[in-house]
Amino acid sequence: MYRAAPDGFLKLREGSTRKTWLPWLDRIRDHFGELPVVALKAKDTRWEVVQWRNQWAQTPRTADYAIQVLQRVLSWSINSGLIDKDCNPAAGIEQLWHANRADVIVEEAELTAILQHTTHHGALAIRLAAATGMRRGDLIDLKWSEVDSISISRVASKSTNGRRITIPLTKDARAVIAELRELNAARDVPSTFVLMSSRGPWQKDGLGSTWWKAAKAAGVDKHFHDLRGTAATRFCRVPQTSDEEVADVMGWDPQRVRAIRKRYVDRERIAKGIIARWEQMEATGA
After folding, report:
1. pTM of the predicted model as reported, rounded to 2 decimal places
2. Rounded to whole angstroms, what are the CA distances from 81 to 22, 40, 75, 76, 90?
3. Is 40 exposed, middle or buried (0-12, 13-18, 19+ CB in 10 A)?
4. CA 161: distance to chain centroid?
């Protein structure tokens, strides 16, 4: 029923998300499919759910994904009136994976090194990510109709309520957009998509693979998603830009922006101030 529901599986984004969820729905059906609804309230059912998850404990993120899908199916069942509110034994199960990348960014020196190990098309995509902070899914779906001279405006790929994202185009972003426009104009048939690989429109996995190859070659252990932090630091460096404004653009909590500003932007400003004072002392002998 969940698979066929417009507000269930069919509400998921077509493509990689549905493709990833289908095997997990099969596993859930095979393991729990004959479990009576009344058994969902039993205390030992939660233990059964945890043990089912733990078969992937060696790969914590995979184990957590199993619980995520099961939680979604049961939550949908509750909202649909198929089971009672206390019939979700997967609710509240803690994640096994606890890596916190909230304030991790790709620093400028790392970005420079990565760009030297990728293709021209790959570099343009990575530079646009670092300049806008857009998620990979939003980047590969971005169309020229959503870009004007000062901003990018589109419905966020992860939004379930049609929330639009509006990203101001900084100097870095405008420079990348200009290169992309020139490249598109030179095509025999201009594309409606802003980003293109050498083979056509980017696929999510293709862009991810391009990133990992370049990052590995550059000796940088960072994720493509960490480019969102890079963009946040650039926004923070714009004079008189508040944490709340940056948070609004990024779709983050202001506290997360403050953590990035303190760790990267303020540290850099303090270091530059110290160096400037030292150089002045050396020059004047004072």
Report:
1. 0.64
2. 23, 14, 10, 9, 17
3. buried
4. 18
